[in-house]
User: What shape does this take?
Amino acid sequence: MILLVPIGPIPIHLISWLEDKLGLYVDRPVKTGKAVPLPRQGYDEQRQQYTADAVMELLQGGSCPEAERIVGLIDQDCYSPDLNFIFGFAAVNDRESFVALPRLRPEFYELDENKCLVRQRVLKEVIHELGHTWGLSHCDNEACVMQFSNSVEDTDSKDTAFCQSCRAKIIP
Assistant: This one.
């Protein structure tokens, strides 16, 4: 089972939609867990971003033994030490990952709101991060959801599904 965990306030319509759709792509049941507060530590005032490590620590601190994987959703901009921003982050071959929502919204780039586009971007990034938890690295296939996204346009151009090669590595 995949457990979605809201970190701070997350739009309920997005969580509900994701809970309905995600299982179709990862062949596992999906459930939404209890929301957790934003991490107290890990916010960089100068950058106005949360560190990936702080978000991951928060997810690793929770316990839900029945969950095969835990995916946090945070509506805050995040970064990791080697990247200025991240769309998501995962513990490779472990069960925790998260997706940061702000840069997946057109409004972040001063474009018109588009909830359908945001849902598709979030779905792709959640599936991508889950792929890392199952041990997948970035894929060279430009259509594969495991293709690295350096920009939101990269996310838009890739598919929502794993390519045949990646999918073969994660079939339960």
